[in-house]
Records
---
Amino acid sequence: MTVVGAGVVGSAVALDLARRGVAVELVEAQPEPGLAASGTNSGVLHTGFDSVPGDLETDLIIRAAALRDPVLDALGVPVMRCGAVMRGSGVDRLVENARLNGVEVRLLGDDVLEVPGEAVTDPVAFTVALAAAAERHGAKVRTSQRFDAIAVGRVVVNCAGLHADDVARLYGDDSFEVYPRKGEFVVFDPPEPLDRILLPVPTKRTKGVLVFPTLDGHVVAGPTAVDGEDKDDWSVRPEARDEILPKAVAMWPPLEDAEPIAAYAGLRPAGRGVNYVIGRSRVVPDLVNVAAIRSTGLTASLGIAEYVCEILLGTPLPEPAPLLPGPPVPTGEWWRRTAELHAA
């Protein structure tokens, strides 16, 4: 079985399949896992308190939360369980939404909502750890290898992110289209410590500009949400800073006189009129598409992996083998690598 794409979703899928005894090859076009969308997001692990009850995306976010802690601990992936606060008109309407999703929240006054389960991780470390664990469990990980040929008689799981629609078209499947939604971030040396994630009230299109601490002691504000067509344009627009800063300062006034030390952009694989396209292709049943996984992919990755296993192996699923330990996961200023890589 071939899994295309060693982002956080593809790496999680490869690991889950390998732990259940499936012979897996994980193919990645980049030199290492996590260099594209997975390594250019916020690193925030959301709880799904504000997600639409009953949606597949919501179900997989919630399931991933139940699976995540033992995996993070076993793989040595760092996580900051700092919680989040949302301020703004209308936060009270999210209390019932959170209850329907089984997520703990606390209403502190009319316009302040506390979400204790929100957390921050290193998204690159998370992705690399999943891919390395998949390899320890028997998966073959092949980097710098673009998938451009149909694997005859072999099941293919299409986790190709921004290029998932291109992979599907190799099989004659044009049922969905993926386009890049650019999310730009600015990074600060904080003028004072920030001990939790600050959230705006979300819209149907975006979660809005967040302000959040990183594991390495910095503070990040963003993202923007700019729909485009160029899947290779990782640049930060000149106007991005002016779009982010006023919103960030309104949420956390200490940023008023702070000067950004870096900026980076992520390209989220948004679907054209669709979201979370996960299932067997109607054109070729041996192709399983896992596409249009937008910004919540990091959060939902373990739930997505289990769901894909159910599609391929049926239920009840075979119990996964215990996670094999490995060397410590390299961590650090992952955002700096991202900024420098795509600025080059």
Note: The radius of gyration is 19 Å.
---
Amino acid sequence: MTQELLLIFPFVILLLSIAILPITSSEFWTKNYSKISISLSIIVIFYYVAIDGRGFKITHTIEEYFSFISLLFSLYIVSGGIFIKIKGKSTPLRNVILLFVGGVMANVFGTTGSSMLLIRPYIESNKYRLKNYQIIFFIFIIGNIGGSLTPVGDPPLLIGYIKGVPFLWYFKNLIYIWLFAVAVLLLIFFIIDKYSYEKIKQTEQDSVEEKGERVKVEGIWNLIPLTMIVLSVLIQEPKFVREILMLLSAAVSYRLTSKAIHDKNHFSFEPIKEVSILFFGIFITMIPALSFVSENSKNFGLDKLGNVYWFAGVLTSFLDNAPTFLNFLTGSMSSNNLSVDVKYNVIDFANNYSVYLKAISVASVFFGAMTYIGNAPNFMIKSIAEHKGVKMSGFFEYLYKYSLVILLPIFILIWYIFF
């Protein structure tokens, strides 16, 4: 146990590197982030394979990573083949509508799919007055909170569905919380965006394209492979068929999409390369942290609703939200003498202990917006925005300037009103 606790340090070092080095040593980080991520991963891999003898943990994690990156890579490739142009001024109201539509779409195409599909047109639409807060609210709503109504929306909910939670349970039980969170965020965004909008000089409007089609879409046929990727998420057996279908869909999309569309989207492989390497490091180095959480889940007092909501939320903010959901679901069900591996037990828990499942689901999805690494789309959105020239907040600035100031009070209100 002591050795495994010490092995949490590579994870902490990687998080601190992601948080600090891009700000303090940008050039060094750009050249060496892959070396840092891989080196820290090797330490953990060596321990579990050569010392601990539980190499299966590495194998299992690499399988999970392969599923994760196959989905992210495929959605990135296919969305890069769809060019959406919105002409005219990006007014605060229009931004609110786009964010709301994206939040709804997140339940159909997933938070990752909707984010990849809409982030480029959102940036282009706001380019004459683009601020990083606009990207951060995009992360809040479309990258995270929006996708809390269906199992397709976010990986934790998909795990619940696989274990036995009915497909429509999330919509029936979380719709009011979803509406409250999205409405409050959109209201706050509108106030901030309206203030920013009013400061734009009239002369800057001359560069905004007003003529022609309001919305122009090219490569719309890519919605077919996009839909195939989303539907393939529901496939469980045989092993790796899901990932093969995703990657084949992406390959077909990339091969058949014209270079002109990729050029218009300023498409490059650099953002997905960065995310792939960093998240490989995150997946591997967080194994000891997840093991500690799993082995001590019952000590968290998961028979108390407040502990379930806040512990799951805090861990989701810094660890992968899918295993956090499963660990807390397992612990909470165990405290009520139910097994997560028995399907009718899960259905019983969803019906008779619904408030606990609601707390775990909300915490696992909503709190993913608290940091850049809380959910898969967050870092990808940040990376795409930066490659398009947006100066994004660093890890700590994101925390103290946005998530702690805006999200945390909302999450406290959600706790007070609904739990």
Note: Confidence is low (pLDDT under 50) at residues 206-213.
---
Amino acid sequence: MDEVLTIEEIEARFAPDWVLIGEPQTDELLGLRAGKVLFHSPDQDEVCRKAMEYPPGRYALRFLGTLLEDVVLVL
């Protein structure tokens, strides 16, 4: 996928998957605004494995589903 999409367009097309985004465009607080969807899947591990195939660079990984109440994300 070569087109740059806004985060709203990405969410509308790919929810509830995990999405690997190339060439991410961010705001001054590094909030994701737009980018190119490189890969998507409901399986986080599959997306992470796919990310390793790309050369080092700037990418974003975003989950577009709903988190369960008892889930905690550790960064």
Note: The mean pLDDT is 93.
